[in-house]
Amino acid sequence: ILDSKDKIPYVWKRGQYYYNFWNDADHVRGLYRRTTLESYRKEEPDWETVFDLDAYNENDQGGENKWVWKGTTLLDEGPDVEPRIVLMKLSKGGADAVVIREFDLLTKQFVDEDAFYIAEAKSNVCFKDKDTLLLGTEFDNEDSLTESGYPRIVKEWKRGTPLSEAKTVFEGEKTDVSVGGSYYRDHGYFYETYYRSLTFYTSEHYFKINGEIVKLNLPEDVEVSTFADQLLIELRKDWGSYDAGSLISIQFDKFLEEHNNIDVIDDLKSDITLLFRPLPERSLQSKTETKNCIVLTVLDNVVSQLIVWLYDSENHEWKLRGELEAGKNGIVDVSASGIDVDENDLLWVYSDSYNLPSSFSMVSALEDAPSELLKQLPHQYDATGVNVEQHEATSKDGTTIKYFLVYKGDLPTNVPTLLYGYGGFEISLTPGYQALTGVAWLEKGFAYVVANIRGGGEYGPSWHQAALKEKRHKAYEDFEAVGLDLVEKGITSKSKLACYGGSNGGLLVGNMLTRTPEMWGAIICAVPLLDMRRYTKLLAGASWMGEYGNPDIPEEWDFIQTFSPYHMLDEKRKYPPVLFTTSTRDDRVHPAHARKMVKRMNDMGFGRTTHYWENIEGGHGGSSTNDQKAYSETLKYMFLYTYLNK
Fold first, then answer.
1. Are 572 and 605 in contact (CB under 8 A)?
2. Active-site choice (351, 620, 623, 624)
3. pLDDT band with cut points at 50, 70 and 90 for residue 268
4. Is 620 tagged catalytic?
5. Would you list the domain boundaries of the chain?
6. What is residue 329's predicted lDDT score, i.e. its pLDDT?
7. Would you kindly state one Gene Ontology biological process term found in this protein's UniProt entry (predicted)?
8. Has 503 been annotated as catalytic?
9. I need a surface site. Which of 170, 347, 426, 551 has the fewest CB within 10 A?
């Protein structure tokens, strides 16, 4: 399945070409390639290889570094210049830290003469012009990183000069999460911006205006972007008469002239357009741009919609166009991205569901041309009779929790059931085609469930904030409520109910292990946080204090310790079988979390049903190749078969 030639080769447009990065059995590490739109429309496009990562690995110290693709950053010299230069990012073993090299798309070679080269680090970088970078990285002999391990300083680096001579243009504090800068072109306007991420959810935003870096007078918890001459502001909390979760737009010059000198946003209400107003069941998930439009991806009870606004640049006015037909498909996840903001109002539209294979279409945001289905993934498992339903559970405090139930045939009775969750960092769990789950689980008549618990972003900022810090237990109560609802409905039983989560979801299921071990027949805990006393001392952990709290503050440790699985283990209790997985090259969540947990459970006498798998590469994603992914997925399902079928 993972190496299937039938996979959709998703593309992005750069100049006249459409680029794709491809993995299969013949290209284990991957192939960076391109084609034309005319060729892409064919069943088998003619691809031109731009960069062969497998060949590069073989030629570079015999593959010792095991390079993993992490994308490119383009030098944008305007709509009339064919893109040629990118900054290519390669990771050793899938880590977040990357080596960055300048690459020529015309010669298909790394740039040699006076090339920009950035050593392995968690860097922020963009081109300011063809001979200048805005760069945040780990600079030699400088205190250039935050406590979270991300850049603290932004420098302007000129081509042909030593990095040590790069000029500092912006800096933050050691306690910031990260600091960065960017320079970009937006519908004929040029912006140079900087930010200080004070916490994971709060930032200071700066724009360079007439040669001076100016801080915008905004709440620290907003998200900021631009469209032409408009400043777009997404709210996490109420601001004046605008509700948390709203998206507002104001002409940038008017904002600078007026609001940067006042504190009451409602004084500018006549100049503001409300592009999105949330409702209890509706939230804004993302936005994308075309030449004349902004397209919003909206969730309505966790089902996607695409809403279009048209911008009149002459009158500086927004006009609502309405909902795209492409988003009206039932329990389906639909998202969009602009193809070329300089040329047209066309979108890439992605669509799938648990029983609906992925499709990739070209759609006009103005709906002035027919939609074109470019690629359709064939069924990769037998989805005949597979049902996708939304159900509700009631959490401990009375809150209604939605969940997706996926099963084959009639409503199941007492079957092995896998419950997946995350519940953090504003991340929404929406329907998606999962061929591996289909083959390994649904085809066997088992049930698969995804819980939309608090802490996620399914219902906007308030849904996320309802499970922050001292309210973390709300997410866990929600997840437990879904599990109990499945048992009460007779779909499964506690001995046949498993839960699975990774990263923050690993912390979630780690708490299921220690809070309600009697509820579960098996637990899979992937790349997890588990030791919440020391999480801020490990790798990027300090950046998540906005989510969990600071364990070094006694008052906060009082509540953090209640959801620290490592500390909540009790040798007098009985625990279900558990599989912990991690990666040696995970430089985001330290593998020590899983290692320590397994060691402690073994020392307590639970070793017989405590299992552990550590991949030597893969980073926080757990695997770097399809072979590694196939192995870890097989391990996961074999573990479930072993313990849930008894």
1. no
2. 620
3. confident
4. yes
5. 1-121, 288-378, 386-644
6. 74
7. proteolysis
8. yes
9. 426
